[in-house]
Structure formats: structure tokens, C-alpha cells
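Dear support,

I submitted the protein below through the web form. The confirmation email said the job was done, but the results page showed an empty box. After a refresh the structure appeared. I'm attaching both so you can tell me whether what I see now is the final result or a partial one.
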Amino acid sequence: MKFDRNTVIGFVILAALFFGYFYYTNKEQSAYRKDKLAKQQVEQARIDSINKANQPKQDSLARIQDSILKVTNPVAKFVLGDSIEKTSVLENSLIKVTFTNKGGQLKQVELKKFKGQDSLPVKLAGSDFDNISYSINTGSASVQRSAETADLFFSMGQTVTNKDGSQTLSFQLNPNDSSGRSITHEFTIRPDNYMVDFIVRMKNAAQLLTNNTMNLTWKYAAAQQESDISYEKQNTQVGYIKDGSFDYHTIAKRNDKNFDEKTTWIGIRQRFFYGILVAKNDFSSGSNMEWTIPADSARTVVRSTANMKLTVPAAAESAIPFSMYYGPSDYHILKKYDMRFEKLINLGQGMYSFVRPINKFLILPVFDFFNGLTKNPGIAIILLTLLIRLLISPLTYTSYLSGAKMKALRPEIAKLKDKFGEDKQAMSMEQMKLFREAGVNPLGGCIPALLQIPIFFALFSFFNAETALRGADFLWSHDLAAYDAPIKFGFNFPILGGHLSLFNVMACITSFMISWYSMSMTPDQSNPVLKYMPYIFPVFLLFFFNNLPSGLTWYYTVSNLVTLGLQFVIQNYIINHDKILEKIELNRKKPKTKSKWQERLEQMQEQQKKMKESQQRGRR
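What the results page shows now:
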């Protein structure tokens, strides 16, 4: 690569796009940090208020029963199935789900194939905050009372194994009156499946629900699962299908969402795990969802509360089907459900959505193939890098060839500079004429570099979202989805943080070597900015890449090593500089035709030259 003026322009454009991306990202992070403290204070005040309001309920079981169920007509009371909380477990090869009779609901999900920071199975929906509940009428016709199902104790049924291998567990709630009202919660898990089917069966729903509307509340606290909770929060989003269309929000940018149309599902995706609630008959309009970001010390990424409405038919018996997904945000797993869950995985979103097809159809399947072949994500990254560099090798060769052509013209460009001196317009006109005669495109070196930018952004998204990298050991890194931190400072250095990523250092050193090798083959630059700019870029990378996943910085290290090898081989053994000179001379002998754009450009330059000469004569 030869660093003439046009190549440097291409380099500057490329660097500006990189820095623009990081500026945009850092701006989002700054907004997140600015809002976080205020949200934490609001959340803490809300929690204190809730705890204070609920304190009487927590005193004793007798108070709970009295406050919820006490009515003037004793036959209208609901009979409690048990006086204490009892649990039951259903499990398959992927999940272990604990259910509780209090509220007849899911209590916790363990993911058997994923480990948390404590080396135990990842647990989702297992905090005291998590529950799913809806309001029912517990009084008689003359005395109206209501209760939340989460506060009521259901009767627990036996686990039934079905013919297809699925398992079903039911909970029942019955009144001791003659109204015929009853509620059954039925949960089913299937083999090798993360989805939990949940059906609410009601008898005489019109008496249980006001206006035949179920007001369901789903509370979900996404517990911290990664070592860097701040980075995990930045990569956490709320997603949903509303009126048939998918949409999402980053949790730091807003804290609520109103649903004016019917909604099929809502979900919280933290970086590698997903909690989703599906209404198979759709939630009604008028639903809403809000979320808060707790302090990092709470070890919780986000707490969300969804207040969703469903219309229940006024029939003697009604069934309201739901599904709940608690599992990894793995693209292939989510896509199998055919409900567009995978849309929330960041393979390219917002202004960078143009790279999503690259990830979806190229990088993801290729990485899956290599990872399945090697059983080692670090080695899979090496093979992925080599394949990508092979695919873009025509662009690389074109860039180096353009540099070689520009170098061949340097002596003549130097003569033009001596001839025209400070007359930049005349110099520009003659230089364009020289390029046209020689058949050289001055932008030939930077255009191939710009075409590689989508690959950069695609890989940046991929390495932040790929679940196979999570917890993967490679060399000194114990988690390719997080930064490697073999060097810790014991204090926070501005921008850099409290550690130094060794993969990042390697990426920066190899970037510096590329700049050094290129500049060593380039004549000395008189302009100090052009002379030292190639060395500045690796220094910026040291700061920007230090907190990025080690899988990404390992990729750039390998990519830079490949670049060094290609640069040396192409420049010394493939490009024939003598043939380039011969071809330039042949191009000069060919008759030239000017395009309309060239003619207009030369006319404009000629007019500007005449105007400048006229102004100079006027001053004299």
C-alpha cells in the first residue's frame, strides 16, 4: 500500500467512519450513564413505596387471607388449596423449571447448558420480583372483592407425562360456593425445548373477570449473567410484535411502551438470554410495559413490568393460551419457533441494519461450520478470518495495485509540482490529465477499503451477539464474549478502564506494524500530518477496543497478521512494477475520449483559473 495523497484521503474517510461509529456508541453510553442515576433513584423510591404498602401482607398468612378473601358472605370465599408454599419441578435436556402453588405459576428456570458467573447453571425469572398474575373477582354478587392470583394458594396436581414425551403440571383454584367458578393453570414442557406452554382455563369467566377482560401483569427481572454488567446493560433491549410488525427499544433510551394495537409477544433480551411472554390470541390494545435500570450493585440488568389486557369470551368454559420462553438468545434456536423472536438479536440494527444480511447469510453460517468442525471458537475465528480475507482479496489486490500505479507516477507528479509551484488549480488540472493519459484511477486505492466497511460493522455486531463465544476458553481468555483482562491496574484509567486487554494490545501492535511497513516503502512526506497519521490510528484503537469482546480483538489480530503477509507477498512477488510502467506508456499512446463529467470539471477549473488570474491583475 503506497501512501500518496489520495490513499491518505481514503484512510481518513475510513478512520472518520470508524471514529464516527465509536462516537455514536460513546454518546449512547454517556446518555445511559446520565440517566442511570436518576432512574435508580426513581426505582428505589418506587420499591420503598411498594414495600411499605405490602408490609401488612407480609406479617402473617392469616393477614394475607383476611385482607384478600374476607367478605360478608362466607360461601363466596375461595378455598385455599394449601396453607404453605409448595414447589414442583419439570425438566428436559435443556431446562429445569420450578413451579410454585402460590399463584400457580413458574418460580424459576435453570438453563442446563449455560453456566453463570458462579459456575452454576444460569437461572432466569428466579427473583422475588418475578411473577405472573392477574386480577379476579373473589366476592359474591352482592359484595365485590378482588384479588391477585399471585397472592392465592392453588391446589397442585400430579405431573402427567404425555404420549409425545411432554410433561404437564396443573394447579387449581376453586370457590366453595355454588357458582361453578374455577381456575386451572396448566403448564407443559416438551423434550429439547426452551418454551413453556401456559394455559389458563376458566369456568364462568364472566364472574371471575370484570368486563370479560383479563388484566395480566408480567414482572421480569433480568439478572446479571456476564462479568461486565455495564456492557450487558448497553446490549439489553425490549422487543415485541405489535399489529404484526416487529419493533424494539434499547432500555437506556426510554423506559416505557404503550401498545395501542394488538400485541402478539413482548420480551426482554439481555446480551445472551431472553425472557418472552406470548399471547397466542394476542394481547388487546390499551396494554403497556415499563422498565427500570437498577444500580449495578443490585446485579440486575433491568426490571420490567408489563400490564397486558386480554379479552376472554363469555363462555361457560374458556381457555386462554400463553407461552413463555426463558432461554439463550441463539439465532438458530429462536428462528425455529417461527415467531420472529430472532429479530431482536443484534446482527445489525438501526442505522447498521444494512449489515444484517452479511451476518445472516455469510458470517453466521460460516462460523457455525468452522466451530462445529473444530469445537474451538478461537480456532473457528482464525478460519473465519482467513475465509473473509480470501473473499475480499480481489479488493485488497486492487488497492495495492492502485498504490503501485500511483507510485509509478510519482516522478512525473513531482515534476508537475516543480513546474506549477503554488498554482494548485493548474497543478490539479495537469494531474488529472496525467491520470487520464496513464489510465490510473486516483481513487482506486480508497474505494476498495471503503467497500470493506460493511464487513467491519457486521463483525462488530456478530461478536457481541454470538452465544457460542460466551464462556469459551482460548489462550489466556476465559470468555471470548468479554474482554480479556490479564493486566489489571487496580484503578480506572480514563477511557481505557481498569484493565488492559492483551488481545487488544496485539491488535494495535499489528496495526502499527502494517503502518510502519507501508510507510517504509513510501518516500518521505513533507507534511507532518500525512507522515504521522498512519501511526496515530493504532493508538486510538488501543483505547476504543479495550472493553470490546476478546473474540473481536482476536479476529483483528489475525486479520492484521494476514494483511502483513499479503502486503509483503503482493508488493514483492505478485505486482510487477516494470509491467505497470509499460502499461501506463501503452495507455498514453491510446486515443483518449473525455466524458461529459470530465469536460465539465475541466471547464469549471479553467473558469476558476481565469477568475483567479483576473483578480490578481486587478490587485496590481
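Response: this is the final, complete result; the empty box was a page-load delay. Residues 1-7, 56-76 have pLDDT under 50 and may be disordered.
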